[in-house]
Amino acid sequence: MTIETIALDPNTSGVVAVGMSGGVDSAVATALLVKQGYRVFGVTAKMTQEYSRCCADEDVLRAATMCAQLGIAHHVVDVCDGFQSSVIDPFMTSYLAGKTPSPCVDCNREIKFGILLERAMELGADTVATGHYVRLSEYEGSRQLVRGVDRTKDQSYFLSRLTQEQLKHVLFPLGEMQKREVSQLAADFDLEARKSRESQELCFVTEGTHGEWIDLRSLETQGPGDIVDVEGNILGQHRGVHHYTIGQRKGLGVAVGHPIFIIKIDAEHNRIVVGERELSMSRDVRLRDVQWSSKQPQCGMSLLCQVRYNHRAAPCQISEGEGSSLSATFDEPQFAITPGQLAVFYDEDRIVGSGWIC
Asked: Radius of gyration (Cα) for the chain, nearest Å?
């Protein structure tokens, strides 16, 4: 099936605010829109009062410098309170409950295309553009996200919870491009951002692991507990359930003569259950808070389902559920389907829906 994506057109998009992180991708997106004739200004979110790998003071300065280079205005928007309540607090709560959160999904929906979009429109923008590698299409009267052309950089998974109202006001200038093309444009445009670092880690976890970061900031951690096998035999001690995730093999501190993996995190009893890899395989996934891009697919329809960012989407059939809950069954067992992560449904490269794994 050929997917028709929405082409950029400076004559129909009004004023565009580009969300600028200080990195290469958002810098090139800004320069492209300026050079294509869009009316553009830059906007950078101040996410946290602590140091961050994204939108730190040095990144804000780099974004402002690039806007000056391009001859456009630059605004800084303080979203610290919203970022704390919508991203950081749920991140800690989820890990302490034995789940594995996806804070970038929350950040995109609530902050970058939530608060920042609202503030940008108050500043006169009609649309917000970003440097995400993803495309847009119109399908059955609704806007839907399509994987970016560069599959190694595709970020559609992290944007899959955007609403129809949000999708009406976004542009993704890099969706049709390869990363190597973007890097070359940064050099051709002589952008300051071409010298910036590119991080794949959580922007706000800036020291140690996520578990150590939580240890320093939460008084609600349960502390060490038992690591047990499926029969309940104690094999060792863990550091706290928030240090671990389903499917984890390394860092358990337990030796049984063969590889073992975390197959369950029981936060209520403060214990971690381990077993052989096949015990981490499952064909079934239950979801909550499911949302569809247009009408809900029929029960039994075959789709591709991606259960975490670095997972290769696999064929499945969806089942009916109650309200916004449903189940899906994979054609083949999948490794480490993890509570707290997002499952995203695709029809080829087009996102049709998503839900949280419960």
From this structure: 22
Strand partners, 284: 329
Paired with 46 in beta bridges are: 78
Domain with CATH 3.40.50.620 in the chain: 15-195
- The CATH code of the domain at 15-195 is 3.40.50.620
CATH class of the domain whose range is 281-357 = mainly beta
**Number of H helices and number of E strands within the chain?**
10, 17
Tokens of 282: 């499952």
Residue 203 falls in the annotated catalytic set = yes
User: Bridge partners of 17?
Assistant: 41, 128
What is 222-275's CATH number? 2.30.30.280
- The stretches of 123-271 forming alpha helices (DSSP H) are 156-159, 164-167, 179-188, 210-217
Please list the residue range(s) of the chain that carry CATH number 2.30.30.280: 222-275
Identify the active-site residue in 54, 67, 104, 107: 107
Long-range contacts of 264-268 (CB under 8 A, 24+ apart): 265/98, 265/99, 265/241, 266/98, 266/241, 267/96, 267/97, 267/98, 267/222, 267/241, 268/98
Select which of 104, 203, 305, 316 is catalytic.
Answer: 203
**Tens of pLDDT along 285-336?**
999 999 998 888 888 889 999 999 989 999 999 987 777 899 999 999 999 9
pLDDT digits (tens, 9 = 90+) for 231-261: 999 999 999 999 999 999 999 999 898 999 9
Report yes or no: 20 and 64 within 8 Å, Cβ to Cβ. no
Where does the chain hold its CATH 2.40.30.10 domain(s)? Answer: 281-357
Question: Annotated catalytic, 107?
Answer: yes
Q: Please report where in the chains the tokens 């491009």 appear, as a residue.
A: 177
CB 234 within 8 A of CB 226: yes
pTM for the model stands at 0.92
